[in-house]
Design goal:
57% helix, mainly alpha, 74 residues
């Protein structure tokens, strides 16, 4: 779920649009964003997306943004 959140954010979607696209409540999205900020040590949305690209979590040179590895299916 967090990879999908990152991908949509990197594509410029607002929090409300990301929540709607993924069928999440705003509270659930906020929870995922909080966990992502802690995990990636980022204090804002732009920093979060930049960090994801820097760490190779998101593909570079791909539009729309995609995760660099497939999501966990377990």
């Amino acid at each position: 779920m967090q990879l999908r959140v990152l991908s949509l954010m990197a594509g410029g979607r607002s929090n409300g649009a990301v929540a709607t696209d993924l069928g999440l409540s705003r509270q659930a999205l906020d929870h995922h964003l909080c966990r992502l900020r802690v995990a990636l040590d980022a204090d804002s949305r732009p920093a979060l997306v930049a960090r994801a690209y820097t760490l190779g979590i998101l593909h570079t040179r791909v539009w729309p943004p995609r995760a660099a590895f497939p999501p966990y299916q377990g």
